[in-house]
Amino acid sequence: MSDSLLEPTAGAATPAGTSIPDGGARPPAGASPRRRRRRWPALTRTGALVLNLASAVLGILIWWALAKAGFNLPTPAAVAKQARHLLADGTLEHDTYASLRRVLIGFFLGCVAAVPVGFLMGWYPVARALIEPWVQFFRTIPPLALLPVTVVLFGIDETPKIMVIFLAAFLACVIAAFQGVVSIDRTLINAARVLGAGDFTIFRRVVIPASMPYIMVGMRVGLGSSWATVVAAELIAAQEGLGHRMQAAELYYDLPTIFVNVIAIGILGLLMDRILLVAERRLTVWQERR
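Request: output the structure for the sequence above.
Response:
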């Protein structure tokens, strides 16, 4: 018996007395056609900038409304006036330079040290077994908990502050670099070996490019940890810096000065994060983006 005899022809009657229309079976009663998922249109750079500015204006308006509603907050006008005063006498510029210098040195040294260590942990099992327990051990200890130790060992100058910033950036970046290596598709590495590539060539042409998105994410996380660490360190042992200035203002209940320094830290952190985003886009041009 041929297979064609087993198939109903177009328009043939079914046991229920209905017919099958040309082009296939009828969907069950009550079933709705599958709706396509609506996708938002791509956002241009100009559109993103407009939304950023609108978000900033909305935040300032909410802040002003809360201050006028009786919350214990200085108004945006009072903070702006105090910022002009601190800029005029050079205090804000001096403190900003001190904090930014500490963050840049500690953050740069931490990232430079973390990338090769993370690569070693991800590539060589022996190195992973030797290094990973120490990394996980120090990850459970807040960097500020080590500040008294560094003060005793290195004194009260810049070294203790830079050391704790270094540790905060290092621990965030080393885990990201390690995860980037272990997440690489083994097919890429095997294909490179089949083509005769050695370890150095594989590292340069496969491992580093494939790990770069993870590394950049780790650097962004480490940047936030660095700023949080430097402010706390300056609250404990410093004679200058944005954190030190906030502590001094707290003694006199000078809320406008505290807000000026908080906003300065946020602006500096945001600008540095945007610089890392630009670097990430240039270093990962091969990556598909949404």
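Residues 97-242 form a domain with the MetI-like fold fold (CATH 1.10.3720.10).
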